[in-house]
Specification:
The protein contains one helix and nine strands, in the order αβββββββββ. The chain folds into two domains: 32 residues; 139 residues, lipopolysaccharide transport protein A fold (Sandwich). It is rod-shaped, with a radius of gyration of 31 Å. The protein has 191 residues and is mainly beta.
């Protein structure tokens, strides 16, 4: 029969070996300098959410109003604004005029009104050949209107217009350059 004293000695040896194993394992893991997963930087206090590769589509009564793409975005809950970078904003057109695609360095999407304010190297193009460039524009969703009070250069096939301030109706494609207007109209090709 095994004595109780021997069982205690065997158990003590087993406990010491397990403890030694744990200490050695921890020392090796910490000592080798293994780092955990990369820690993301903290968001600023006013930013609720940060995303990459964003695509947002606005529809009304089953009809697409626009598509908004961005490389990065941050949602500011306090202001209810989404700040976007690397922006492409597409407004659908008809078969004649085609879609209008606006590109900009950044944009603010105002969530409540669904307005979009684009800034930084704004360039707009369409399949029909329309093109304009400016420093910043705003898309007013309630009126389907693109506006700017900045200097703008606009071209559309046979004419080029430059001035300060612009209003472009997305639905009718009517354009108004507001002041300091200079235009060049080329004659139609014969033939």
């Amino acid at each position: 029969m095994i004595k109780v004293n021997k069982i205690r000695h065997v158990l003590a040896v087993v406990i010491v070996l397990v403890a030694l194993y744990l200490v050695v394992s921890l020392a090796l893991n910490v000592g080798t300098g293994r780092k955990g997963d990369k820690v993301l930087p903290a968001l600023p206090r006013n930013i609720e959410l940060s995303l990459k590769n964003i695509h947002y589509t606005e529809t009304k009564d089953g009809v697409k109003k626009w598509d908004l793409f961005a490389e990065q975005g941050e949602y500011d809950k306090g202001r209810d604004v989404t700040r976007l970078r690397g922006v492409r904003f597409i407004l659908p057109g008809d078969a004649r005029s085609g879609d209008i695609t606006l590109r900009a360095d950044q944009a603010d999407y105002l969530n409540a009104s669904k307005d979009v304010a684009l800034a930084g190297n704004v360039v707009a193009t369409s399949v029909s050949g329309m093109r304009f460039s400016t420093g910043h524009v705003s898309y007013l969703a309630a009126r389907s209107l693109i506006t700017t009070d900045d200097r703008v250069r606009y071209s559309d096939g046979r004419f080029d217009v430059e001035g300060v301030g612009m209003e472009l109706s997305v639905k009718s494609r009517e354009l108004r350059i507001l002041k300091d207007v200079r235009a060049v109209v080329r004659p139609a090709a014969k033939g």
